[in-house]
Fold these 4 entries.
Entry 1:
Amino acid sequence: KNQVEQSPQSLIILEGKNCTLQCNYTVSPFSNLRWYKQDTGRGPVSLTIMTFSENTKSNGRYTATLDADTKQSSLHITASQLSDSASYICVVRPGPLEGGGNKLTFGTGTQLKVEL
Amino acid sequence: DADVTQTPRNRITKTGKRIMLECSQTKGHDRMYWYRQDPGLGLRLIYYSFDVKDINKGEISDGYSVSRQAQAKFSLSLESAIPNQTALYFCATSDFTPGQFSETQYFGPGTRLLVL
């Protein structure tokens, strides 16, 4: 069964500090991996997407990396801000012959809290 | 994302009642989805629709039904609500393009449902 596991489950950091969130997956074949940010009381919003051939993708202070060989991804947040407090969800799409948006596997998310 | 709206945002109901959650989108997307989110679990797909006349069961469709009244509207019904259907429900649309495998899902703000 396809699985996406995220760690840590929750994290508290001080404003201005950096942090790294981890995502391990077993989805195979693999098409792309996306990181979403979900603010409390809101729906998830896409941050980055990487295909199997990409190693890194940035979106402002957010940088995602991907190692398709080890099936691991990380999301690095630089110079954290209070507004970064949210749940970050890793989502993996299987290979092109395995289905489309109806075949996504969602991780359980990492709950990040940024404090003063 | 204001382009995908859900009503109601919060709902309390009693066991055995029939309720409907509504979703509307102004993005012009053909594909729409209903997910539920429970603490400690990733988003799980309930139903999805790739076009107005297309309805498909997802991973956890038992106890739910849907209606795709128009391209812009996708409703989720709980025919006889039970307490374990207490969850956060999200509607999403996606910008699928044939031949592309990076469709992005755009989520509504969610409906928080409590079944007593």
Note: The interface with chain A takes residues 1, 4, 31, 33, 40-45, 48, 56, 58, 90, 92, 94, 96, 101-110 of chain B (CB under 8 Å).
Entry 2:
Amino acid sequence: AQTVTQSQPEMSVQEAETVTLSCTYDTSESDYYLFWYKQPPSRQMILVIRQEAYKQQNATENRFSVNFQKAAKSFSLKISDSQLGDAAMYFCACTTGYALNFGKGTSLLVTP
Amino acid sequence: DAGVTQSPTHLIKTRGQHVTLRCSPISGHKSVSWYQQVLGQGPQFIFQYYEKEERGRGNFPDRFSARQFPNYSSELNVNALLLGDSALYLCASSLPTSYEQYFGPGTRLTVT
């Protein structure tokens, strides 16, 4: 089983600025996948970005990028040029097979 | 293409009753997973079904059951409802060869 920890219950960022959300995980498996999901007030979980553990290169999707530190079991999400629409709960998740294991989430507030 | 759909959107039940929640996956996706999200927490894995077979089960009592139909849609059944079953129930679908899961909008269940 994996455990996922998000130590920041809330974060705030100004529009156009950059923010980093933290996530650490623990797994005994060598083959696993990591994800960041966004859940706006509409409550639909949206896949933001994924990282395969076997890949050294950090994943990037437009304004979203990750800092994957495998030895430290750290998987942070960086949001550049923050927009009002980025305001949401962000969940980090880990899987080695079929079940996604989620952290408790970080609430991101974006101020004008 | 349509995303994952779930019905109903909201549901209010009384303790001891039974409930059935429904999910239709993205076209071409053959795996369906169910998650329970209690307010303020990350989603918790309940089941995954693939080709009508249960592939995995989370730490939930036997009151929770599910099934998958030939068209890959799925039902989640919960018997003898408890107040603690009040939550957002999320369905996710995925391709058989992928770890990425795509979520529906969820069903909000309130048990009174």
Note: The CA atoms of residues 20 and 32 of chain A lie 22 Å apart.
Entry 3:
Amino acid sequence: DIVLTQSPDSLAVSLGERATINCKSSQSLLYNSNNRNYLAWYQQKPGQPPKLLIYWASTRESGVPDRFSGSGSGTDFTLTISSLQAEDVAVYYCQQYYNTSGLTFGGGTKVEIK
Amino acid sequence: QVQLVQSGAEVKKPGSSVKVSCKASGGPFSTYAITWVRQAPGQGLEWMGGIIPIFGTTHYTQNFQGRVTITADESTSTAYMELSSLTSDDTAVYYCAKEGGTARYFESWGQGTLVTVSS
């Protein structure tokens, strides 16, 4: 299976400041034939199911605020919250869908307000 | 947008089985894949497997091979996940999710079903 390692495990950011979450893959998630990275990001608030934020590493899901952005390629990816809001407190997960018979998630990053 | 509604919480004895349902509305059920993900208390997300109803094809992660069965009833737009030989380690919230049309990310999710395994 492809292993996704997220860092940090948790971070505390002041309101209005930038939050950056990293996701490193054990193998490249870039499919050369279409030049797409098979990585998604989710947000999970307490007691709720995950919510899709980003797919294809950088495509924002409809309705997701533009303060959320995804970047990276190959094995290294980043989710950035440009200006943290109170409602962004959550755990964030990356997920690879390159290996379609073995979908995997990162371990999660907890974002809190400083 | 497709909405997924799951069955209610379950309490099961070790060694027994549980079957969780996931009813879809708001879209053509048969043409998209439904996947199952579980989350143990305080832990991360773990993909279990999925099904494409129109083809009846299923994929399972090796971690659950032989213990999990995922099925779908097109007539009721409902997917099912059955997990057998339960142990306390299977205590978790089980989610169904609809996969993206062109790739295996998860566009929408059910509300989750808590399965507690306890003697």
Note: Chain A has a mean pLDDT of 97.
Entry 4:
Amino acid sequence: SQQGEEDPQALSIQEGENATMNCSYKTSINNLQWYRQNSGRGLVHLILIRSNEREKHSGRLRVTLDTSKKSSSLLITASRAADTASYFCATGLLSSGSARQLTFGSGTQLTVLP
Amino acid sequence: DTGVSQDPRHKITKRGQNVTFRCDPISEHNRLYWYRQTLGQGPEFLTYFQNEAQLEKSRLLSDRFSAERPKGSFSTLEIQRTEQGDSAMYLCASSLTRTGQETQYFGPGTRLLVL
């Protein structure tokens, strides 16, 4: 079953605008990761944030994590047409024995219009 | 290129046939994972290996599915007596155990269509 849920399911913006995607999850986590997937392709790792971190930056990406609300957000600033893709959050669970698998949400489809 | 590779990239088969997929992880990575992804959904965990040992299997992995990693390097995923419901993208990922905060690197996937 899917642990996380991304919101919105689909997002369409103009090039240059910022895009914000949210992820909620259900159980205690060790870390949360964001991945990007272009249509029909494999997943590309974007960023990992640990459960004891609140914010992390990587280039045009900014990720926040609120473990009290069990939620995370991914902000892409100054979006480009090449950012068009599906974005998934994935959680690494805290429970021993299950800490290795990632549990993915159903994704946000981002479309950046030129 | 030293990323995760998968072969074949596409497979079309008839219901009832067996299929086998191969995954070559990043060379120094000791963990290897298989996931399945259906249209419009995120990947779902199937199984993972640490070196040659298969340490965890999902309930999604029915008796018709078997995975191996005989020498702790490449892995194969076999589906026997395929069903139309097996149609999906099969993704492989690998990671290196280091700090416990490991990143999984994914291959391009094998898209399976069962007719």
Note: The interface with chain B takes residues 2, 4, 30-31, 33, 35, 40-45, 48, 50, 88, 90, 92, 97-107 of chain A (CB under 8 Å).
